[in-house]
Amino acid sequence: MGGMKNYNPDKDVPDLSGKAAAPALKLTFVECDLTSLASVAAAVQQFASRRLDILMCNAGIMAVPPGLTEDGYEVQFGTNHLGHALLIKHLLPTLLQTAEEPHSDVRIILLTSLGFRGHPKGGIVFKDLRTTQDTGAFGSWIRYGQSKLANILYANELARRYPNITSLSIHPGVVETDLVGSLGFANKAFVYVANMGKLLKPAEGAYNQIWAATCDKEKDKLVNGAFYEPIGLLSTKLDKTSKSEKLAEELWVWTEKALKDY
Fold this sequence. Notes:
By secondary structure, the chain is an alpha/beta fold. Helices cover about 35% and strands about 5% of the residues.
């Protein structure tokens, strides 16, 4: 979750009784606020399994007003990228250990968006990431694009550094959830007009990430580090910035420095 304070699983997690595909499967709720690196670090400490086959990084916020995370980072970048990066950093040893097991197929799925194309010139303005980056008109979408670009670059860099893990970034489509519903009037109108007739139902919005997590790597010719659109389509919409190995490495180094105390 991103920035949701006082989350109470007893009343905030929907009742899934009788709805689970595998009723015997054990589910465990772990509180994790991605706007707080301390909260992410504490959440990971509750993960006790020796095996982790699939990690989905799919929480996020979109086009919110200027703000900062608890740690002083631009709130969309801090939530959509930095919080997930810390989660990945702490879980990598378990993921790598699992990848060494016979017949394993370990995957990291990062949800991004075609909205990455709204990123600022140069891709990521590193020098301003500890400010609200309030640039006025369309600023919320530029900041969102910057954070979603980071998801694409990070998946690509993960694939380069850890080739025995399949790391993908995926666009779920534009989905009718509270991510859109909670936007202000102007931003909501922009989304609806720009995606008229293309909005997906919430269940449909999960299809691409489920495909990415479970598809046959050989049969579907999965490309490690790639960006996929719904459903299972290798994207042709990446720009020069989102393909930059130099920028991906710069993001990795910046992220490691930002997370070194956690």
